[in-house]
Amino acid sequence: MKKTILYIDDIKTNLFIVESLIESNAENLYEIIVVESASEGLEVLLKQHVDIILLDIMMPEIDGFEAAGMIRHSKKTKDIPIIFITAKKDDETIENCFYLGSDYVNKPFNHVELLARISFHLKLSEKEKEVKVREAELEYEASYDALTQIYNRKMFHRLINEKILKAQRDKNSFIFIMLDIDFFKKVNDNFGHLAGDEVLKSISKIIKEHVRGSDIFARWGGEEFVLSLDTNLEKGVEIANNLRKLIAEEDFAEVGTLTCSFGITEFKEDDTQDSMTQRADSALYEAKESGRNKVCQA
Length: 298
Known about the structure:
- The chain is an alpha/beta fold.
- The chain has two domains: 3-140, Response regulator (Rossmann fold); 153-297, 2-Layer Sandwich (Alpha-Beta Plaits).
- Helix content is 51%, strand content 18%.
- The protein has helices at 12-25, 38-47, 64-72, 91-100, 111-143, 153-170, 184-191, 193-209, 233-249, 273-289, and strands spanning 3-8, 30-35, 52-56, 82-86, 103-106, 175-181, 216-221, 224-229, 260-266, 295-297.
- The relative contact order is 0.09.
């Protein structure tokens, strides 16, 4: 797929030379768009995708440095490589070229050098994009459970600690819920682990669809999940019971119906994550011991 070059220069002769150079030597690699002012160039960037910019410095109205500053301040265009093409060789110009752009080429330029620099910065830009994508993937993998696509335990620890600090500072409260799928081992034993995985994904989806985006929902491990909601205990019990009923009413394909048990507690001023976890876990144990498919509080 061809890469798109945008060349901005107020001198038509320069535009013609570069356009001819690209068409003669790299037509199979690049499409080139030429414009005579920075304002026209900025319009092009608003309307279509551009892979690299060649930019003159000395132009009327908006010069190259001003235009580069605008390009760098736009989320859409900030990562596009900019190669300045200039007759100026003073230290301040060179410094600004590297501060606002990626590189510079002096006029009159060497054709081989210009093409080499264009190729180099396009390849570098692709590598940087690949690195950013991989970094985003690694960040996602570090924060989310691979099976259910909700937060993992590590991320929950981080978020709940932040919530505790905020609650202590603002003198407000929130609730903490632990829930567990009843008799989940029988699902794996009778229907296989793939069926068990589908159950975990389905229950995650049900809960995610019925809590707010600001609520913290994570897989604790195995068939256990945790929730943190910005509400009081009474409303929290109501929400937990609603989730319990939704799960109990669901038909999990070959597995049939299932239930969950819930343990719930409310944040207290001197709470830590461990103290809240212990209370919620105790309430969950009570729900299990007293018949399952229940919401118990501690």
